[in-house]
Amino acid sequence: MMSAPRLSRERKHEIINAYLAGEKVDLIAAQFGVHHTYPGILAKRYGKTLRGNLKPSRKIAIEQHPEIKKMFKLGVPRTLIARLYGVDRTQIYRIAKAT
After folding, report:
1. pLDDT of residue 59
2. How many angstroms separate the Cα of 59 from the Cα of each of 68, 69, 99?
3. In a domain, 4, yes or no
4. How many domains, in total, are found in the chain?
5. What DSSP line would sit under the chain, residue for residue?
6. pTM of structure
7. Residue 66: inside a domain
8. 19, 53, 70, 82: which could join 39 in a potential S-S bond, CB 3.0 to 4.6 Å?
9. In this structure, are 45 and 72 located in the same domain?
10. Which residue, among 46, 47, 45, 7, has the nearest Cα to 28 in the 3D structure?
11. CA angle, 63 then 76 then 89, to 5°
């Protein structure tokens, strides 16, 4: 089995820039012919912040829960709400579904 040819420095930077711009990892991998884990590995290797580590322990104040629930009921996407509050979308879902 032959391995894929090495990527040039320019191609690696293109992958990192696409990753940091928020493109989907599977799409980046398909575009550049690499494994889906490679964009994250490459970003880490170059000292960039990985997406999942932006604010891993960020908590939302209880006072903000009603506003989140209201936005969720109005149909605002969880990912957008999560970006506004700097948390993961699963945390938004838990808050919105809590009684």
Report:
1. 78
2. 13, 16, 18
3. no
4. 2
5. -PPPPPPPHHHHHHHHHHHHTT--HHHHHHHHT--TTHHHHHHHHTTPPPGGGSSTT----GGGHHHHHHHHHTT--HHHHHHHHTS-HHHHHHHHH--
6. 0.51
7. yes
8. 19
9. no
10. 7
11. 70
The two tokens of residue 44 are 């880490």
Return the exposure string of 11-43: e unless at least 16 CB atoms fall within 10 Å of the residue's CB, then b. ebeebbebbeeeeebeebbeebebeeebbbebb
Give me the pLDDT at residue 61, please: 87
pLDDT for the residue 98: 85
Using CA atoms, how far apart are residues 20 and 40, in angstroms rounded to an integer? 9
The rounded distance, in Å, linking the Cα atoms of 69 and 61 is: 13
Residue reference for tokens 């012919």: 33
